[in-house]
Amino acid sequence: MDIGAINMETILPLAVKYAGPFLAALIIFVCGRFITNRIARVVEHALMRAPHAHKSLSKFLASLVRYSLLCVVAIAALAVAGVDVSAMSGMVAGLGIAFAFILKDSLSDIAAGVMLILFRPFVLGDEVEIGGEKGVVTSMSLLATRLTTRDNIEIIIQNSKAWGGVVKNHSAYGKRRLDMVFGVSYDADIDATMAAIQSAAMADPRVYDEPKIWTKVVKLNDSSVDIELRMWCDYDHMRKIKMEIVQPVKAALDAAGIGIPYPHEVKIKTHVKTSKARNRIAKLKALRGT
To answer: Chief location of this protein (predicted)?
Structure first.
């Protein structure tokens, strides 16, 4: 018996039987992949042209469309090739559940990142405080938000913490109120003091005329009277005004003859005489008397 002839007689019908479905499946997969990539690009370009588009979100949604369609194409190709896709679908579903459990934290960050991008509680360039960390938003991705502090330290915060926690956006509004406190002597004329502080603030062109500048006595300390100054300005100027307004206020107070006290402490010493010392003094007086 010729083994080669038997093998050819066995293999050739199988090859003829499965060659057609295999080629059809291959054509479906190649063409489907091409069409899937084209659709994903169209979706990405359409999302990028939308108002307030975000690059990371657009790429993520386009990738989601691409891989979803690619799974459909792969299942269709396998079905044409004669593979039982019903059992495979269950296996794929099981793998999907397993991966979802393993990557649950990352998926939570991605979901939070999508919410942050859609609802925009802050944007790039805003100065925010998230979970006690304060800085300027320099980057937003689907997994994390990056902040840079004033002293150039980078802080990376998970999106799930940013979305699920309290976010303070210090630069959400262009106009902010700046509060400062100045201590003056108890001997100072309060009306003259408040007028001097207000004049120094009004002389700064960065301070708004409206709302009006506000000054009031807010506290009586041990050695000083605290006067609070409230003024409105642009957020971009807020930090500089806080540093630069002190010198004009000091000059205005000096010109008005108003003193700024410094903390001081008076120690009173008392001499307590013991009974032994008193007896000794009494004896000395008695000797002098004799």
So the answer is: membrane
- Measuring CA to CA, which residue among 257, 209, 56 is closest to residue 140? 56
**What three-state secondary structure class fits 185?**
coil
Q: What confidence tier does 216 reach under pLDDT thresholds 50, 70, 90?
A: very high
pLDDT tens-digit map of 47-88: 777 666 667 677 777 877 888 888 888 888 888 877 776 766
What domains are defined for the chain? 3-102 (1.10.287.1260), 121-169 (2.30.30.60), 175-255 (3.30.70.100)
Q: Look up residue 71 and give its two tokens.
A: 């799974």
Asked whether the beta carbons of 78 and 126 are under 8 A apart, the reply is: no
Lowest mean pLDDT across 7-21, 158-172, 208-222? 7-21
Q: d(Cα 128, Cα 121) in Å, to the nearest integer? A: 10
d(CA 81, CA 159): 43
Confidence check: pLDDT of 206 > 90 = yes
Radius of gyration of the chain from its Cα atoms, rounded to whole angstroms: 40
